[in-house]
Amino acid sequence: MSSGTVQTVSSNGTYTFTKPNREAITLLAGLGVEGDVHAGVTVKHRSRVAQDPTQPNLRQVHLIHAELFEDVAGAGFEVTPGDLGENVTTRGIDLLGLPTGTRLHLGAEAVVEVTGLRNPCAQIDTFRHGLLKQVLGRDENGEIVRKAGIMGIVLTGGEVRPGDTIRAELPEGPHRPLERV
């Protein structure tokens, strides 16, 4: 079992790439972040809606590890919490190393089930030219490595604030690695 902390929470009721930081967000079971444009039972991301608006929303909550911002800063990119559209910025937990189905306990009540990796899109380069190359790479086998955080669905609602603890509850084995959602 691994753990970390919530560094920042962010949400936005309109479609913009970045999301303003908040004092708190409320997660709603089966929907996502209250008042956020991506909340809902069915998919809300524009590209996904265009493909099939009836798809289940496996991207209700977007989490990014703050350590990513430090990594890209080394390449000359200034990125701060909320800039990449995430709802929860974490610290101290290896989000990308979690298996599919991990349950993240955020604060006192909220539980988010990890559904997969965020697939970074070209909008990242519109935000900061060249940043996409920093959050999307290839490993030694030539396989794509996505570093722009993870996505999840809300199992149990609750308020989430900066400073809250995050506790990862791994699913029963065998574990399935995260894939793009």
CATH topology: M1 Pyruvate Kinase, Domain 3
Mind describing the biggest β-sheet? 7 strands, mixed, barrel
Shape assignment: globular
Overall tally of domains = 1
- The gyration radius over C-alpha positions equals 15 Å
Please, what is the CATH homologous superfamily?
PK beta-barrel domain-like
How many helices in DSSP terms?
4
- Would you tell me the structural class of the helices and strands? mainly beta
Gap between N and C termini:
24 Å
Strand order of the largest sheet: 1-6-5-11-8-7-13
Beta strand count? 13
Roughly how much helix do the residues carry, as a percent range? Answer: 10-25%
Give the averaged pLDDT, no decimals: 94
CATH architecture: Beta Barrel
Proportion of residues in β-strands: 25-35%
CATH class: Mainly Beta
The run of helices and strands is EEEEHEHEEEHHEEEEE
Unreliably modeled segments: none
GO molecular function: catalytic activity; molybdenum ion binding; pyridoxal phosphate binding
Organism: Streptomyces gardneri
Protein name: MOSC domain-containing protein
Pfam family, one: MOSC
